[in-house]
Design a protein that fits this description.
alpha+beta, elongated, 8 helices, Structural Genomics Hypothetical 15.5 Kd Protein In mrcA-pckA Intergenic Region, Chain A, Pseudouridine synthase, 16 strands, eleven-stranded mixed beta sheet, 323 residues, three-stranded antiparallel beta sheet
Length: 323
């Protein structure tokens, strides 16, 4: 069934943009979706005078009526893929993503992604993000990075979570492994990061359309001078941010196939077994360990911790033995 909403303009609201007035009147619907509803002809004044311009102004005693079409099916294919669900309620879901899973379909990979899996897992509990039955992706982690991410199931949850990420109020901590012992052992990295000027698949400090990026790292365990375990905390959330920043300061992540040019002398500090294991490690040694945020509807503080996956636990064991 379609849903019909009504909103009456009070005296103090006369002269506001219609899209802003309706967004204030119907907080469960994002302003972006309201704009689309207006443009697509789903909003009218009660006298059946259809509104087509979101920027038009409200008039005294206006009553607006919106007919919300049923959410349409998402384009990606729903696929029954096992998920490690850490937390779920009617508004959001927290997933512990394995390394090797892409978050969102893209050219060249339309199936096997987290979105495909969530479409099947959540089913009718997805009430429609922007009018489409799809999970609301508010942040991503790289395909070969493991760990926690939160996904919205409703439009209002999507708005609330997106706002927290925009305001940098979400707590995110990553575990990372590097060869050698970074100096200093604690530091704040601030640069700009944008698309690489030559290789469009890479990001770079000072690249095209670069934006400010801030990462805090600290050594939480060192294995002699041969290698170290770090905690990296994000103040911003640029694509490949930790990987780019650690490579930029000369301490790329173990196994990083894009940014991980290891200084040979550091590899030589390892014993033969560890050297071979590190050389063949198949992905960047990065894990999204901690995720904390306020529930977008109840404001309840939520915090989740993910244990190291098997491959990183084995890497750590090898590095400890190599000390």
């Amino acid at each position: 069934m379609t849903e019909t909403l009504r909103a009456k303009v009070n005296t103090e609201e006369v002269g506001k943009r219609i899209d802003r007035f309706l967004a204030d009147s119907w907080p469960d619907i994002s302003r972006a979706r309201i704009t689309n509803l207006i443009v697509e002809g789903h909003v009218s004044r009660e006298n059946n005078n259809t509104v087509f311009r979101p920027s038009d102004k409200t008039r005294e005693d206006d009553i607006f009526v919106a007919t919300l079409p049923n959410p349409t099916a998402a384009d990606p294919l729903a696929e029954a893929i096992d998920l490690n669900v850490v937390y779920e309620d009617q508004d959001l879901i927290v997933i512990d993503k394995p390394a090797g899973m892409t978050v969102h379909p893209a050219p060249g990979q339309q199936t096997g992604t987290l979105v495909n899996a969530l479409l099947a897992y959540c089913g009718d509990s997805l009430s429609g993000i922007g009018g489409v039955k799809r999970p609301g992706i508010v942040h991503r982690i790289d395909k070969d990075t493991s760990g926690l991410l939160v996904v919205a199931k409703t439009d209002i949850a999507h708005q609330g979570l997106a706002k927290q990420f925009q305001e940098h109020s979400v707590e995110r901590a990553y575990t990372a492994y590097v060869l050698g012992l970074p100096s200093p052992t604690n530091n704040r990295i601030e640069t700009t990061i944008g698309r690489h000027k030559v290789d469009r698949k890479r990001m770079a400090v000072g690249g095209n359309l670069a934006k400010k990026a801030i990462t805090h790292y600290s050594v939480i365990e060192s294995y002699g001078f041969s290698s170290a375990k770090l905690e990296c905390r994000l103040e911003t959330g640029r694509t490949h941010q930790i990987r780019v920043h650690m490579a930029h300061i000369g301490w790329p992540l173990i196994g990083d196939p894009v940014y991980g040019k290891v200084i040979p002398s550091r590899r030589q500090r390892l014993n033969p077994e560890a050297r071979e294991f590190v050389t063949k490690f198949p992905r960047q040694a990065l894990h999204a360990r901690l995720l904390g945020f306020a529930h977008p509807l109840t404001n309840e503080p939520l915090s989740f911790v993910s244990q190291l996956p098997t491959d990183l636990a084995k890497l750590e064991e090898i590095l400890v033995q190599a000390t």
